[in-house]
Amino acid sequence: KNEVEQSPQNLTAQEGEFITINCSYSVGISALHWLQQHPGGGIVSLFMLSSGKKKHGRLIATINIQEKHSSLHITASHPRDSAVYICAGGGSEKLVFGKGTKLTVNP
Amino acid sequence: NAGVTQTPKFQVLKTGQSMTLQCAQDMNHEYMSWYRQDPGMGLRLIHYSVGAGITDQGEVPNGYNVSRSTTEDFPLRLLSAAPSQTSVYFCASSAASGGARDTQYFGPGTRLTVL
Question: A73 exposed, middle or buried (CB, 10 Å; 0-12, 13-18, 19+)?
Fold first, then answer.
């Protein structure tokens, strides 16, 4: 069983919809990362959080340490948000990655 | 800043050949790491380094060697390539030596095929 689980694996939405991607982890972590992998393959960091909530533009990430759960929300989704979203958790030196959620936003 | 660079972008090897994947960063980051990404699986850690002269194994180190003689460079060596090493390889860096606790910066990836 993977130590970091994401759901759903695939998600299709219409432009403008509110999106939620979930991440659960079974290991102790000091930080939870959300990454975006573009269709061309490049990976960029969206958020790193250890408690509470962070917001950047239309993206919001939350984490509940007690429940070992994090969510990534996208408000007013747009076709350019189509990508694979990856969560990863780590204690100190090693990150463990979820398998990713493939998001497709249709116009 | 160029960020994290990787060369080559694409490579085809025959079974048994050796090669080195190059990774460099110009952000003076302490932590560097190598991952492989395979279909249906998450990124998996191969090796990592918390500073020049210090390396350690990740989840899938067999068949790979690394060294870190400078802060900037972290090459990954395939000793004797096998078809199971066909994958996309990503190098990443972060400022803090406790890499998991800091923002990760990824290179563009190297797509390796072993025939």
Answer: middle
Q: How many cross-chain Cβ pairs, A to B, lie less than 8 Å apart?
A: 73
Among candidates B40, B43, B98 on the partner chain, residue whose Cβ is nearest the Cβ of A92:
B98
- d(C-alpha B82, C-alpha A92), whole Å: 31
Task: Say how far apart CA B72 and CA B59 lie, in whole Å.
Answer: 23
Task: Write down the pLDDT at residue A91.
Answer: 74
User: Do the strands B10-13 and B110-114 form a parallel or antiparallel pair, or are they unpaired?
Assistant: parallel
DSSP A81: G
Whether residues A93 and B103 touch (CB distance < 8 A) is answered with no
B101 DSSP 8-state letter: G
User: Is the CB of residue A13 less than 8 Å from the CB of residue A106?
Assistant: yes
- Collect all residues with Cβ–Cβ distance below 8 Å to B86 and sequence separation of at least 6: B112, B113, B114
- A65-78 pLDDT, tens digit each: 889 999 999 999 99
With an 8 Å Cβ cutoff, are A45 and B104 in contact?
A: yes
Q: What are A11's two structure tokens?
A: 């998600």
Encoded amino acid at B18, one letter = S
Is residue A2's pLDDT more than 70? no
Q: Which two tokens stand for residue B50?
A: 């918390």
